[in-house]
Specification:
31 residues; mainly alpha
Length: 31
């Protein structure tokens, strides 16, 4: 159970980092 929770946290953090990178790439293009 704890391991599954840890994996979920890692995956969510990775997705948030990717989304941040995508927004950083798209914001200059949209301006």
């Amino acid at each position: 159970m704890f391991v599954a929770l840890l994996c979920a946290c890692i995956v969510i953090g990775h997705l948030l980092e990717e989304n941040r990178w995508i927004t950083n790439q798209l914001l200059p293009l949209s301006l």
